Amino acid sequence: MARGLTARPGTVLPPAVRARSSAGPPGRDFVLVHGLGASSRYFAPLAARLRRLGTVHVLDLPGFGGAPPPAHRMSVGDLAEAVHRWVTERGLVDPVLVGHSMGAQVVVELLVRYPATSSSAVLIGPTVDPAERTAVRQVLRLAQAVLHETWTVLLTVGSDYLRCGPRWFARTLRSMLDHPMAERLPAVAAEVLVLRGERDAVASTRWIEQAARALPAGRAVVVPSGAHAVMHDHAAQVADLVGRHTGIAPGCVPGGDRRG
Predict the structure, then answer these.
(1) Fold for domain 18-246?
(2) What is the b/e burial string over 140-154, where b = at least 16 CB atoms within 10 angstroms of the residue's CB?
(3) Mean pLDDT throughout 159-170?
(4) Does pLDDT of 212 surpass 90?
(5) Which residues contact 240 (CB under 8 A, 6 or more apart)?
(6) Of 50, 54, 108, 45, nearest to 79 (Cα)?
(7) Measured distance CA(63)–CA(60) in Å, rounded
(8) If you ran DSSP here, which 8-state letter would residue 217 be given?
């Protein structure tokens, strides 16, 4: 049994996540969780910035990033269990959990189930807006988001979608829609920064401000001119916001702060 884990006989552990870690100076650990259809690759610019503040771990959830999909559909809760298992195995103490899009749901579910895991988290372009909790709406929003992304993001995420495949994408989309994100937020004890890019077609300002108000310790921020993958093309600004949120690296992003 992996360090820090205990299990009753017959317990089925969730499929494992894949991870790459980059050591930085002594400080906090940052755990980055990607969204639907994507992989850890689009976190590269943000990971490079956060590495100046501590050690960065970028995860690939089961079925993504080239990892074979499990035989069964995984709920957001299952994905949260897989991430928690990995954090526990590594013996990380109070890491900063950063989730993008569906990864934000995974982070929230993990914190509800295991509140002692982390005292701070960042939700970037979180899904799912309860006013648009249908497959048709979400697919349309993703299509609209494409119009605002750079070619670098499109090529990276596009190739990840192909590796993921339509069957696993559709299965995980259903899990994403089934997860009651808005209802789970009030149970999160950690201090949470909720942010979006100004041109994000998936997570509106109205939704992230609603999410921030629902959190016991939440704050909403809009990054000017950013799109859904704001952490890729505005990595410096997002890293600065993460640093300020965690108290590691005070800074300022003019015009980008809106409190929920």
Answers:
(1) Rossmann fold (3.40.50)
(2) ebbeebeebbeeebe
(3) 81
(4) yes
(5) 249, 251, 252, 253
(6) 108
(7) 8
(8) T
- Quote the CA–CA distance of 219 and 240 in Å, as a whole number: 15
Q: What one-character-per-residue DSSP string does 107-122 give? A: HHHHHHH-GGG-SEEE
Question: Nearest-CA neighbor of 245 among 226, 225, 224, 217?
Answer: 217
Dihedral of CA atoms 185, 187, 191, 195 in degrees, nearest 10, equals: 0
For strand 54-60 and strand 28-33, is the pairing parallel, antiparallel, or unpaired? parallel
Domain ranges for the chain, please list them.
Answer: 18-246
Helices (H), 100-233: 102-113, 135-146, 151-164, 166-178, 181-184, 205-214, 230-233
> Contact, 227 vs 199, CB < 8 A?
yes
Query: What whole-number distance in Å separates Cα of residue 136 and Cα of residue 122?
Result: 27
What's the order of all strands across the beta sheet hosting 218-223?
A: 18-22, 54-60, 28-33, 96-100, 120-124, 191-197, 218-223
136 pLDDT band, cuts 50/70/90, is: low
Rounded Cα gap, residues 218 and 65, in angstroms:
30
Kindly report, residue by residue over 84-131, the tens digit of the pLDDT.
999 999 999 999 999 999 999 999 999 999 999 999 999 999 998 887
Per-residue tokens: 211: 């999410």
> Which residues make beta-bridge pairs with 57?
21, 31
Start-to-end Cα distance in the chain: 43
Q: Enter the tokens of residue 157.
A: 């995420």
